[in-house]
Specification:
The protein has about 425 residues and is α+β, with helices and mostly antiparallel strands. About 25% of the residues lie in helices and about 15% in strands. The strands form three sheets. Strands 3, 8, 9, 10, 11 and 12 form a six-stranded mixed beta sheet that branches. It has a four-stranded antiparallel beta sheet with strand order 2-4-1-7. The chain has a two-stranded antiparallel ribbon with strand order 5-6. β10 and β11 form a beta hairpin. The longest helix is centred in the first third of the chain and has 17 residues. It starts with a helix and ends in a 15-residue tail after the last strand. The protein binds protoporphyrin IX containing FE. Protoporphyrin IX containing FE (HEM) binds next to α13, β11 and α14.
Length: about 425
Amino acid sequence: MTDPASERGISRREFAKAAVAIGGASAFAACTDREQAPDIPTGPDDLSSFPTRQHAWNDALATDEHGNDVPPRHHVLVFLNLRNGGTPDGDGREQVEAALRNLERTYQRDPEGLLFTVGYSPAYFDRFDADLPDSVGLQQPRALTELEDPELDQQDAVVHLASDYAQVVIGAEEALVGNREELNGVEITENVSGVLEKADRRTGFIGDGLPAENQDVAGIPDSEPVPEDSPLYMGFESGFEKNQASEDRVSIAEGPFAGGTTQQLSKIRLQLQQWYEQDSREHRVASMFCPAHAEEGRVEGTGENLGNESGVGECAEDVIEDASESGVVGHAQKAARARDENDSPIMLRRDFDSTDDGVAGLHFLSLQRSIADFVETRRQMTGDDIAEDTAVGTTTNNGIKRYMTVTRRGNFLLPPRSRRALPTPRPDA
Ligand code: HEM
């Protein structure tokens, strides 16, 4: 096979990204050839020590020098539908659980190996006579602002695969859907293909260097403006420890799905022409963080100097004042208005950039105890109050709204690990 990467003269890491976006057997093979991965440890035979929470990733993640969790670099979202639209039975459930356990034995449960979650949509639960209990705050996805008209994800399930190695996420996807008999030296005897069929896939990456290497896409000007050391296309650090909810805060506290969480997923298209070619650095800092950060020069480069908090907590109270006086409000500043009674953020963001469809994008993946927490945060970020009361427009100078378009939305329940295989809405009944 000709090596497409060397033909186009792209770097090994760039190729890893392209390979994840392409997926499949040949991308996997090319990727294992080119990606200099260490020997990736397999998972244990005995899985009994695995955490209850599927989303308990933070303990497995590395932290940077400031104590921020470092997300895995490569991501695949595999959307699945029940074959024939039927109602799952015990055999199907066992098969799915066996396939997931096979994956857990194939790679160690950390970013060097594989981290994953599986979630189910309201459309999945609709096929049952019973409703989900009130302790689960799942709701149908819908448009959340007047400016958007997203397609709504109605697939039954989504598996989020994440690893620092491209070959791991591609290989895991292939194994899961029945396209591999062996992976990482482990026999793949179980897969979901008899029960579930693949409906869609989305891919992406996050981490220093990756957005710069992948900026040759629609939505980013040809001047290659994305900073070399930026983890995301828009040029700033994200996911500061103090600006994220904890895993405890986003976990469902009671009922049959205690230890689970809800996942909101939006597909966002980025248009960064103006951001990089017309806006000043000061405007970018004001729009992403808050005007005070820009005036006082608080953000150096991508903002690593901020340490483990963006520092927008204080600016959150000044949103209307800033809008009136500076004529601009920051994205993080607005979103930081959504806090609970303990002053904690209510969402845990695990989003990542994407080149899917050949456009610069971001898969905004967030975890929260209830989808209502996402809706509230997004309401604060939308900031209709600001546009009503000040000269700031609904998009112009209103955070980063001008540079993004939400094209899809989906909501999912991530059950606790013990109930992750095709759950019924009332598993205790
Ligand atoms: C276009 C995509 C987006 C980019 C590039 C982006 C980037 C950022 C950055 C750089 C920060 C500040 C650093 C930090 O606190 O970690 C931030 C904060 C935040 N963003 Fe976004 N964001 C995006 C979309 C969204 C969306 C769709 C939401 C949904 C409501 C959101 C919610 C938040 C929240 C809750 C915070 C933290 C605010 C707090 O301190 O509580 N972001 N974002």
